[in-house]
Amino acid sequence: VKYLPLVWAAWMRKPGEAILVCLAVTAAFTLFGLMLGLRATYDGLLARARMDRLEVDPRFPSSNGLRLPLAVRDQIARIDGVTAVGAYYLIRGYFRNPESTGRIRVVDEGMRAAGSELPLTGSQWDLLFATPTGVLVSRKAAERWGLKQGDPLPFISGPGLRADGSPYWEFHVLEVVADDPSRPDGYILGNFKYLDNSRPVQSQGDAMSLRVAIRDGAQANEISLRIDQMLANSGTPTISIPDHANQEFVQNSGFAAASVTWPVAGAGVFMILLLTGNGIAQSVRERIPEFAVLKTLGFGDGVISWLVFLEAAAPCLLGGALGIALAAIISQLPAERLPQGLRGVPTPTMSPGVMVVALCCIILLALVSSALPIFRLRRLSTVDALAGR
Amino acid sequence: MMRDFIKQSVVMTRLNLASLSQRVWPSLIIVLSMACVIGVLLSMLAETTGLVHAYASAGSPARALVMAAEHSTEFGNSISRNDVATIESAPGIARTIDGHAAADAEVLLWVPPTEGFKIRSPTLRGVGTVGLTLQPGFAVVAGRLFRSGRRELVMGIRAEDAFGLKVGDTLMLPDGEWPVVGAFSSGGSILEGQLIADADTLMTLAKLSGFGSVVVKLADAAAFDEFKRWLSTNPGLNVTAERQSDYYLRTAEQASAFFTALAYFVGVIMALGALFGAVKIMHTAVSTRTREIATLLAIGYRPSAGAVAIVLEMVVLSVTGGCLGAMLAWVVVNGRVRADMQDVFDFYVSPGLVLLGLGWAVGLAVLSAVPPAVRAARLSVVEALRQV
After folding, report:
1. What is this model's ipTM?
2. Are the beta carbons of A281 and B272 separated by less than 8 Å?
3. Residues 138-197 of B with CB under 8 A from A
């Protein structure tokens, strides 16, 4: 602590340049924090995606589009190892204005068990299935759409879904419920009966997909194949995939931000390493006589190394902290305030783990930046330096 | 007067560049920082440019795509055979040698793999007899073409790498397994990652009620407006027409909009970091050369010429970094195969992309050189020379 004034004096020797280095580090760590946060989000999604949940989709479109008759649900339920089967349909559309797009997942009774990972209580499921036009809205979705319990939710879907030709759905909010970490943007659950009763007769009894709960996640591959083989020669062949495998694939397929998080974060830190390294090397170079005086006064190599390290660490710590704080603020911005193209990016998770990794990186950056100047000072000949040679 | 100014600027720029050997590390850091920014930006954009390029290779402004009005995409199956016949009678369509309309009704289907969980599914394109003649550069390179009325298909040459398919394999399709009887190329277009089969056979076996689109060869590119007007005013049709080139561009841009925005977002933040760093380095450079600059000013050189020289020096360093970044992007990602959910294409560091990178490098150079340049221009000669 007693040497801090020396570090401060060195830093404030050229305050303008110190501020510029700080700003450069801030920008780099904003990017680093966001990329790390994004990586944490993807890792979290993968960790939560379960092997004991399968998604069963129609393999080919029928003349009505991609649909699965509900009768398939009962066939799948009879397979050994299957504990529950639920059906759902996604009503896509908008609320209030065409910019405010979203989707309502209408589910049947089977989802109570097949979707048991949803943070809903038994009474909330009861309420949903007892009220055809009711919806359960998660906190994030309620916040985004400005909804509260009891509010009407007029929803406008695409054409052709309702028998009466109207695109309007008169939902109302039953309750605002807990968020599901697997659905970072929130969710809205509705009652399948409302959809089914409103559709043309020829479409009734069709789901978009089925969700299957199985007893043992280790059997996920086998049961998925069994479902597909069982229905291969039926009128509606299926393709089944465990949630975990699906999530893994989505993260690794084209245009997935997950694939660029580490390379981008690495490039940003490498760039800033060059700048901070140059800054501290230049500062030491300009003050060789000053360090020679310190050595003459009895300052050991260890103390001088600490002084140089702290001088390098100060802008890294300050800029890094500002950058991570900025990243945390950006990650909290509601989707509507982001540029149009970025609204699909999952919210970065600025968890304590991310902060710790960022802090380690900041310290490593300071260490690497100051290594060469410290090495040079340790080999400094005090006599030559004082003589200006 | 202007001539003098230019002459002085050139002399001072040459002096600045000659002194770079005394400032190797700071100069190298500016170059490497710019290389990082431009390298990352171009590597990310190469992915979206690759997709746009692959789609653009398949499209032509002299061909039009007619789609169901409610879908506005090739996917769907609501264009009936009667609709196709009506569309073929529209004005502006080129004629084949035997006098028929150069139009082909097509249908698209995603084909999930027979086994396993990979949900990456190649697109199967059902085409009619005229369809393949409307695809320029289409050539069977292995095996043979599918036969009409038979359950068989051909695959694009890129489907092999992306989906692990080869000639002789079978694919599970509606109503059983279909063999892959041949492989085709189509000039590097997006079709090379797709499968092609006979549309009528596919529709019958998949029990599809209609086509997804009708591809039309126009008599000439200018005939499109009349063709579109005729379709939109025909009360018996509920379709929309778009030039094939416009449709493919729109499709590719929609698919890549998110990643393009992310690339620019990352690029801007990295550029800010590099910008602050470069300003700092150039400030230091001006400080260490105060005497040299003051001497030049004392012998009659204009302050503005000194400022211009600093900007030009920075542009040279920054563009060198930009070139290095573009080269890195080219070496690391150009030509890498990317298989999206359904599309297969190459990363493409296009000449346009390189120019964009160099544009960014010049912009960053100017922005980062202006503060030190202003400082150099405002230098008090007397004060500076006192430091001698």
Report:
1. 0.79
2. no
3. 172-174
